[in-house]
Amino acid sequence: MARRRQLYEGKAKILFEGPEPGTLVQYFKDDATAFNAQKKGTITGKGVLNNRISEFLMMKLADINVPTHFIRRLNMREQLIKEVEIIPIEVVVRNIAAGSISQRLGIPEGTRLPRSIIEFYYKNDALNDPIVAEEHITAFGWATPPDMDDIVHLTLRINDFLSGLFLGVGITLVDFKVEFGRLYENEDMRIVLADEISPDNCRLWDSKTNEKMDKDRFRRDLGKIEEAYQEVARRLGILPEAGSRDMKGPETMQ
Predict the structure, then answer these.
(1) Residues 47, 50, 51, CA angle at the centre, nearest 5°?
(2) CATH number for the domain formed by residue range(s) 85-206
(3) CATH H superfamily, domain 6-84+225-235
(4) Same topology for domains 6-84+225-235 and 85-206, yes or no?
(5) How far apart are CA 241 and CA 29, in angstroms?
(6) Among the listed residues 83, 36, 28, the one whose alpha carbon sits nearest the alpha carbon of residue 199
(7) What is the mean pLDDT of residues 85-93?
(8) What digits encode the pLDDT tens for the residues 145-159?
């Protein structure tokens, strides 16, 4: 495998220089973290499954004209993506109460919300990704008002589409987190969906039993974590070519 220079390593992914200007290679790890990396572990085969699941969902979103950074999958653990300027905001959509909103507002987990709620969090590990208002985002220049209009519009479209897609395979989309970036092409700039969409950043419950099929199984020590990720992939019709065995990562250049 060609040697590539590592540009960034996050909790679940590594970014490498791409083969052409304006591209990056995104590598999916098996590492798992929770509670702002206070809890760490490994979910065997997670990177392979998340690569395939995210590819599938990004392509489905592109079919309905949601712009994304995804170009194509390269192998079991890598994707070729467009290089974007990440907006330092995590956008969370909540359809059913779970996790922090239940803790903050005392809403019993599993309560269907009156309508989908969008929350914004400032991406800053040192500050534990605090929740912020749109006023903070525009006042501090993290995104402009037109950027936020695009982000909210795209987020609602993504939620509507994914809710229906998952429901069709017997899964309830409880909530999810997405990130966006600025894609510069010639003189133009547009907001595009970035990062990934997978059981790492979605809460997915079985529609009949409410059994958790996402990273909450790791957060809450529920066991059968690998099986849950595999079941999501199976229902979506995704079968990794070589199962979930590990694959040697790309070599890095210092």
Answers:
(1) 80
(2) 3.30.470.20
(3) Phosphorylase Kinase; domain 1 (3.30.200.20)
(4) no
(5) 17
(6) 28
(7) 98
(8) 999 999 999 999 999
